[in-house]
Amino acid sequence: MDPHERRRQILDRSAHLFASKGIAATTIREIADEVGVYSGALYHYFPSKEAIVTELIREYIDDLSGRCREITAQSQTPVDRIEALALLALSTSEDYRGATTIWQREGEYMRDRLVEADLAETADEVERAWRAAIADGVAEGTFRDDIDPDVFYQLIRDAVWQAPRWHRPTSERSNADLAREITRIFVDGFRPRAE
Amino acid sequence: MDPHERRRQILDRSAHLFASKGIAATTIREIADEVGVYSGALYHYFPSKEAIVTELIREYIDDLSGRCREITAQSQTPVDRIEALALLALSTSEDYRGATTIWQREGEYMRDRLVEADLAETADEVERAWRAAIADGVAEGTFRDDIDPDVFYQLIRDAVWQAPRWHRPTSERSNADLAREITRIFVDGFRPRAE
DNA sequence: GTCTATACCCAGATAGAC
DNA sequence: GTCTATCTGGGTATAGAC
């Protein structure tokens, strides 16, 4: 089999197993079984189990930060940027379901892998984009100044990044639909407005 | 040492280790070290590592559901109930930091432990309380009917249960303060209201 | 109730034939 | 590049002395 393809296969199967059982609970032998080779063969592609994890996270962070930069480049209104960042979270979570789940589950373990792989700085770009959108909105009066912007950020971040755990895009509700609904709730609130 | 006290010690140290490293990555020997005994001694108190986890979760779920029933008993307005349920999440997370973190990290593993321990039904009480408060609010017109109540529930649940990861109660901001702030954001939104 | 010692298993990783 | 076989370490759990 084409080496590149096999490598891809190892990454994909690993991502799936890591996501569903956790990294520690997933064995090299299980990964090999899924790929259809013997465990020794995996070591021709990656020097260790940890190296597989690092590679998965690198691909994910690279793509995520790239897409994030596109969003901040087209400087829209604060509300538009929040909706775009919410959609970014939903769609990258879908495209990198394995990596995202690992990221959620194994917080501090992943932090270490990131620092090792020199990706910590890149990983922080998304947070800065959120905080900038929020700060701009407060500055221009679009957002209230009697709400702690830090609290607002943490709440919407958790809500958005956890969302793929209960939402799968369907024909009835796409990721874009959900991003819009989330933005409506956080920006306008659940209580009816007088109009 | 008093057996009951030692048992308590084992539970507390285990909770701390499980929460910070994950269950699979925490070894019986580590727990024993923390308690200050040899690993064999632990087996006089619990038949297995899993039994420790189950016991931790049982204590937590029992207390949580008890406090939840108190809230639903005093039937307040929907907004008050949401604030009370938010505070419930924040304060039980503080009182059971270990158990809560385990609960967050090891979702599907914990589900199995719950079913085994016959606690699944109890664990669902909190969800029902949230959904009832939301449905009542929509029915009486306090909440908008053009927002999917299911989406609203999932968002506020994730936001509230993740909050202890970034918030520790201080003299400047207590859990009650944060619960109020969270409720304000979700109910009234981040955009200023005309008044 | 705790310690010492150890059985037993399964993990990650390696070596060499093909 | 893959398979077979195996090394080595560390995990849970147990047994028996004290």
Automatic annotation (TrEMBL), chains A, B:
Source domain of life: Bacteria
DNA-binding region: 27-46
InterPro entries reported for this sequence: Homeodomain-like_sf, HTH-type_TetR-like_transc_reg, HTH_TetR, KstR2_TetR_C, Tet_transcr_reg_TetR-rel_C_sf
Ranges of residues in domain HTH tetR-type: 4-64
Keyword line: DNA-binding, Repressor, Transcription, Transcription regulation
Pfam families per the UniProt record, alphabetical: TetR_C_24, TetR_N
Protein name: TetR/AcrR family transcriptional regulator
Organism: Rhodococcus indonesiensis
Lineage: Bacteria, Bacillati, Actinomycetota, Actinomycetes, Mycobacteriales
